Amino acid sequence: MDSPKACRVCGVTKPRVDFPRYGRECTACERARKKLWKAANAERLRAKNAAYSMAHREEINAAPLTLPAPAQRQLDREEITAAPPTPPAPAPRQLDREEIAVLLKRGKDLIANGDLAAARLVLQRAADANDVEATLALAATYDPFVLRELRIYSFPADAEMARVWYEKARELGSSAASRRLEMLSGALSR
After folding, report:
1. Is the distance from CB of 147 to CB of 119 less than 8 angstroms?
2. Contact at 8 Å (CB) between 159 and 184?
3. Helical H runs in the chain?
């Protein structure tokens, strides 16, 4: 049978059933504690909001509102409609053959492991340095036929991006890119 227990807050001995939470406080004391806690939090929040609104009012009153002259406002509108000056794009760092070879090998390893997102990033650096093999490999990561051969079904193919990179590879002198473009255009026309 359950023996009576004393509440740690009020000290009244009550049956164990009246100790819902971990057996420390009786139900009445727990309710009172929660009520006091809510009231204290509400008071703390009111004081914080009052201090914020007081500081905000002082800030608004301290700085008088001054309107610019009409001529100055017209100038501001003209400045807004004019195209903002664009800073010159930083020149890409030129990669030497050794760096391109490392990037190409890393990209091919990533493709073999099925990490096409990382492979595309790595191969794009080499392709931007006008490397034919890297451009062709990058195009292959978008090619639906190549992805099907590699049995990569979870990664989306993009025939349009593959076409763009194959065209760049063809411009750089790749004969394989021309064949791949023909295959892609045949598939897209169906």
Report:
1. no
2. yes
3. 27-62, 70-81, 97-113, 116-128, 132-142, 144-149, 159-171, 175-189
Q: What is the Cα–Cα distance from 102 to 134, expressed in whole angstroms? A: 11
Alpha carbon separation from 124 to 130, 155, 168 (Å, rounded): 10, 18, 12
119-160 residue pLDDT tens? 889 999 988 888 899 999 999 888 888 888 878 777 788 888
Separation CA 108–CA 2 (nearest Å): 72
Whole-number Å distance between alpha carbons of 171 and 154: 31
Written as six digits, the tokens of 18 are 């009246």
Do 149 and 138 contact (CB within 8 A), yes or no? no
SS3 14: strand
Which of 112, 174, 116 shows the shortest CA–CA distance to 142? 116
* Assigned CATH class of 97-189: mainly alpha
Residue 187 makes CB contacts below 8 A (sequence gap 6+) with: 144, 145, 159
Give the residue among 127, 81, 128, 17 at the shortest CA–CA distance from 140.
127
Q: Evaluate if residue 175 carries a pLDDT over 80.
A: yes
pLDDT at 77 over 60: no
Distances in Å between the alpha carbon of 40 and those of 32, 37, 52, 53, 188?
12, 5, 18, 20, 69
Retrieve residue 34's tokens.
């929660």
